[in-house]
Design goal:
mainly alpha; about 0% strand; 2 domains
Length: about 180
């Protein structure tokens, strides 16, 4: 695993200006897009369903080029934003948001009653929601890579990611922790 980290760092270090320019370009694009937003709800929707998945696609596409030994151009970074990849990213984001929405709804209803028992139950619900969220994010972590690199459909990519993380959990957990 140490060799994989060293290889990744070397590839990034050798091509840092391209990665920095791409990141700055994306940050400026997001900032420009959000300045036109009138409410925090619109801002949340834009970041969650537009900018988050697109930035994930761009970075993953660039990383695939790097691992293949090719230095990505700005056009190749952006070339990964195809429909299949966008659909996979949005599917993973929806899967990840589902427990949060359900947990928040249940916890909100429980706290309306006002009793201490219901408040404790609401806290347990929130903790279970966070646990489910971490598991879902981990098992779907590689879905976009499968969609971009192996040209799988969104559902096939999620299934492949679940299969991969289920069979190689101990080896993949450090990579997932390191990237966040």
């Amino acid at each position: 695993m140490r060799a994989a980290f060293k290889y990744g760092w070397t590839r990034f270090k050798d091509n840092a200006p391209r990665w920095v320019i791409c990141t700055l370009w994306f940050d400026l694009s997001i900032t420009q897009g959000l300045t036109r937003v009138t409410s925090w709800v619109e801002s949340f929707v834009q970041v969650t369903f537009v900018w988050g998945p697109v930035s994930w696609i761009v970075v993953t596409q660039g990383a695939i080029h790097e691992v293949a030994g090719r230095t990505p151009t700005l056009g190749e970074f952006l070339g990964g934003a195809q429909l299949r990849a966008r659909a996979t990213a949005v599917l993973v984001w929806i899967i990840a948001l589902l427990p949060v929405l359900i947990g928040a709804g249940i916890a909100g209803r429980l706290t309306e009653g006002g009793g201490i028992g219901l408040r404790i139950l609401a806290l347990v619900t929130i903790l279970l929601t966070l646990f489910a969220e971490v598991i879902l994010l981990f098992v779907t972590y590689y879905a976009l890579t499968f969609a971009l690199d192996q040209r799988q459909s969104p559902l096939e990519a999620v299934r492949s990611s679940v299969r991969l993380t289920r069979t190689n959990c101990a080896q993949l957990a450090p990579f997932a922790l390191d990237s966040h």
